[in-house]
Automatic annotation (TrEMBL):
Pfam family, one: Peptidase_M24
Enzyme class, UniProt record, top EC level: hydrolase
Cofactor(s) named in the record: Mn(2+)
Keyword Hydrolase attached: yes
Protein name: Xaa-Pro aminopeptidase
UniProt-listed InterPro entries: Aminopep_P_N, Creatin/AminoP/Spt16_N, Creatinase/aminopeptidase-like, Pept_M24, X-Pro_dipept-like
Organism whose genome encodes this protein: Flavobacterium psychroterrae
Catalysed reaction, written as an equation: Release of any N-terminal amino acid, including proline, that is linked to proline, even from a dipeptide or tripeptide
Domain Aminopeptidase P N-terminal: 6-142
Keywords: Aminopeptidase, Hydrolase, Manganese, Metal-binding, Protease
E.C. numbers: 3.4.11.9
One example GO MF annotation: aminopeptidase activity
Family, similarity comment: Belongs to the peptidase M24B family.
């Protein structure tokens, strides 16, 4: 891995939080992701399942974590199962985790090779009453591929039909949404790498540069700072492309006078950052562009102040909508009649700002978090309002990542990334 090893104490804490919520005499199993084929002998780069990483720090394919806090013997309470390495694998694929190295990474003493899993699991099932299965219940999830986790669940249900079944996901949704200080430091590091990429970019952008050249500059800076690259598929949208919310072609030439919406960020150690900035191709905003830009910035700043313990996500978005409505009235994009006659299910401001303002972030860009429950300290959220005006040929979105504090305003992990229009112009023309 490119990143520096994370202290195993983090994963020890994470497991304690999870097992504290388990029912008596129950087992939980977590699987690595598959390596997905492309065709012939080609595969996609491996990306670890975030749940097993969160609980163990193991960042390797064909790995299984088993937790059994009420096991009859101490060495059965936490167990890792890993693909057995050998000299052939070391030559062709590189060194895999040894049992000792797995302990250093995870803090788990009991490590088996994968071929022992079914035998050990069978013994654990004779002691246990309940199995926690790990299903994907994220509110944005649309999974069509049968994952390694899903195959395991199907097999287990057929093999052990007499056991009770419980769900890991509700526990993970709660504990993963509240970050440990070590996790906040890792997200901060990802944000700092993102800052380096953005600062590299500003003097580089000129009329006629292509969106993919901008993408190349960013990924160069990210990887040279120990990131695997982008935390998510980058959006580099010049001109009217910015009005396509998930524009990812990144293949157009950037024209003088246009704006570029950059929704781009680095990952670090599997933790995401999530930044959006909008910059002028020619290094200067027009008067109209700057007026819209400053309106979006004002909404972002006001929205950020509302992220506090006890805030409900749904009510928060209603309040942000009121601020955005005021700004759109000031810009002449809405008039009072539009607001008076609006459909409450789709308020007038949604014509220009049609997406949400904030989502949880962490190991996943759209991270775990139960939206119907009040916000808590040490949750990390994006704040990303935008105004999109196809008729004027541009869209503007600004996005930072912030940590909810016990008291006071959230702590901005992107506080050092330029966002004021004047500063961006200055850096682009330096």
């Amino acid at each position: 891995m490119k990143y520096h090893q994370i202290n195993s104490a983090l994963f020890v804490k994470n497991r304690r939080k999870f097992t504290a919520e388990m029912k008596p005499n129950s087992v939980a199993v977590f699987n690595s992701n598959d390596i997905y084929p492309v065709s012939a002998d080609s595969t996609l780069p491996f990306a670890q399942h975030r749940d097993i990483f969160y609980l163990s720090g193991v960042d390797q394919e064909e790995s299984i974590l088993l937790l059994f806090p009420d096991a009859p013997y101490e060495n059965q309470k936490e167990m890792l199962f890993l693909k057995e390495t050998n000299d052939h694998i070391a030559v062709w694929e590189g060194e895999k985790l040894s049992k000792e190295r797995a302990f250093q990474v995870s803090g788990i003493r009991t490590v088996y090779w994968l071929q022992d899993f079914h035998k050990v699991l069978n013994e654990m099932m004779t002691y246990a009453d309940t199995m926690y299965i790990n299903t994907n219940e994220h509110y944005r999830a649309t999974v069509e591929t049968e994952t390694r986790e899903a195959r395991f669940v199907k097999w287990w249900k057929e093999r052990y039909p007499a056991h009770n079944v419980a769900k890991s996901n509700p526990i993970l949704q709660r504990i993963r949404s509240v970050k440990e200080s070590e996790e906040i430091d890792l997200i901060q590091h990802a944000c700092d790498i993102t800052e380096k990429g953005f600062r590299r970019l500003l003097p580089f952008v000129k009329p006629n540069v292509t969106e993919y050249e901008i993408e190349a500059e960013l990924v160069h800076e990210f990887i040279r700072n120990r990131s695997k690259g982008f935390a998510y598929t980058p959006i580099i949208a010049s001109g009217n492309n910015a009005n396509v919310l998930h524009y990812i072609e990144n293949n157009q030439q950037c024209k003088a006078g246009d704006l570029i919406l950059l929704d781009v960020a680095a990952e670090y150690a599997n933790y995401s950052s999530d930044m959006t900035r909008t910059i002028p191709v020619s290094g200067r905003f027009s008067e109209r562009q700057k007026a819209v830009y400053n309106a979006v910035l004002k909404v972002k700043n006001e929205a950020t102040k509302m992220l506090a313990p006890g805030t409900l996500w749904k009510q928060y978005h209603i309040e942000v909508g009121k601020i955005m409505t005021s700004e759109l009235l000031g810009l002449g994009l809405l008039d009072k009649a539009d607001v008076q006659n609006e459909n409450p299910e789709w308020p007038a401001y949604k014509k220009y700002f049609m997406h949400g303002t904030s989502h949880h972030m962490g190991l996943d860009t759209h991270d775990y978090g139960l939206l119907h429950e009040p916000m808590k300290a040490n949750m990390v959220f994006t704040v990303e309002p935008g105004i999109y005006i196809p008729a004027e040929g541009f869209g503007i979105r600004l996005e930072d990542n912030v940590v909810v504090q016990e008291k006071g305003e959230p702590f901005n992990l992107m506080r050092n990334i330029p966002v004021e229009a004047d500063e961006i112009e200055s850096l682009m023309n330096s």
